[in-house]
Amino acid sequence: MQIYEACKKVDRAVTHRPADHWIGYLVAVSGALMQMMSYGIDNSFSIFSNSMQNDPSLGYPSATTVSFGNSVSLGLSPVFGVLAGFLVDRVPPRVMMFTSTVMLFAALWLSSSFAKSSAEVTASYSLLASISSALMLSPGAAATGSWFRRRLGLGQGINFCGGGVGSAVVPAVLGSLVDVYGWRHTFRLMSAFCAIGLVATILSCRRHPIEDDVDVDDHARGGNSPAREPSHDDCIAHRSFSHEERNEIMLMITPEAGENAAASPTTRMIDSMRTEAEKAANHDNGDTLEKGGKPDAAASARAALASPGGSDDMSMLLGRHQQPQQQLAQHGRKVHGTQACTVADLIQDMHVRRLTWREMMRVFFSVRFLTHFFMFAIYGWSFYGLIYVAVPYVSSMGSAGTVYADVTPISTSKASTVFTFWGVFQIVGSILVGGVASFTDDALAYTMCATVGGLATSLLVFCRSYAAFAVCLSVVGFCTAGIFAMMPALIAKDFHGPNLGFFMGCVFVAGCLGGFSAPPIQAQLQTRYNGNYSYGCVFISCCTTFPGVLCYLLLGPEKQSRVGRVFMRVVEQA
């Protein structure tokens, strides 16, 4: 019992910190380590394709049959990500990361020891690997997002650079091992990378409490008095008004919120109301009674606000004519049991309280959420297709019977090293794009990465030499890392709070569309056009560019384009 209490004290000392604290960078590194382990192993599956096709113990499966295992490992991961997103708001990230590590280790050993067909490889490895990947991604992104506000882009950039590290290190090592030992023995050797997950598990933690847009500078100036996190009761205390009180709103001001508290949105709103009330009180001094001799409610509220001890009063009433309609809706007020708030108001409420299932469904069908969802769904076709096709495309140079028969051959072991360039530039892209986004705008960084990445993938059509592939894939790796770093940052900015993990997991489930369908699509395009990968590269280029167009048009109302504003008006009117 004493050990448990000591652990709780240590955990409280570590996790109860202001936003943008240096501990957050360690948490981001833990997420990077998990992604290094998981994506490094998962993205290497295509390297084993030739070895599995030529394995008599598997019955010599076809390329399309082997690609189905890759589809399951990548495509089912976002589906399980919904469950992971639901759990990440309720289960410590360490528990989920440890479970992820154990499942990936088990998947490698079970498949390499007992699989006798391609279907058994899919069941023993791909299925467990997809669950492992889901349990890794959401906890790391949500835990990192809880530690940052102003430097959220940089934090998520560090978190997502792990995929680049894994892509740079793991495939390069496995490409040489599989030619010597075969896929089974290499799978067992690959399980040693799971030790990285144990280190990441120790470093990961979530910041508590999750504050609503805490200003770190105010924390430093305000001494040791942290802002009280708004509770569920604070958000809904004003909802149960009688018919006579419909024109008034109750604001609960607690004694804990002293002068040294951080400037949360609620505090800033109250301060502005206090200033207006002081002006009104000075102007209408003495005029506080109605004709019947009863005190005017609005005047009493203004006097309470203007008084020096007003913040310690139990409640203060404001006239409805002084409270804008948007503020009433923002607090989700109910009139005669009818919900009066809009979807935009629910998105504001979700920053400080858990939404009900009915409220979640309203947010799910909002333009804001669907924009995030389809951005990731379309990009999934690009990313997962590129992961599957990169090494086979490079190694097809010089293959007889294809359009590349007259090109200088590139071996599979050498082709696998292009992921080294991909991975190195993913590391640079995650950190650099995340840092730039912290000083500019996340949506702008996402749009630029999608545009440049789409152009670079289209240039893959013209590549014939190893150097050309290395240059193009380096640019593509840089841009894909930036996109992956900005996506959770954009999600966290729109849906941060107690519901973040669940909504982030629901957005990531869109990736199952690309994860399941992209490898078979690429395999069919290659077969249909006599081993020509050009058509697949054009498809990947379009799927990389279009999410950037959606981001430019619809994300960030204050920076929304003219076309985006017209589209939003049409949707709202409909």
From TrEMBL:
SUPFAM superfamilies: MFS general substrate transporter (SSF103473). The chain crosses the membrane at residues 22-41, 68-88, 95-115, 127-148, 160-181, 363-381, 419-437, 443-462, 469-490, 502-521, 533-555. Signal peptide: none annotated. Residues 214-235, 277-317 are annotated as: Disordered. One of its GO terms (molecular function) is transmembrane transporter activity. The keyword Signal does not apply. It is a multi-pass membrane protein. It is found in: Membrane. InterPro entries: MFS, MFS_Riboflavin_Transporter, MFS_trans_sf. Residues 277-294 have a biased composition (Basic and acidic residues). Residues 297-307 have a biased composition (Low complexity). GO terms for cellular component: membrane. The keyword Metal-binding does not apply. Keywords: Membrane, Transmembrane, Transmembrane helix, Transport. This is Monocarboxylate transporter-like protein. It comes from Leishmania infantum.
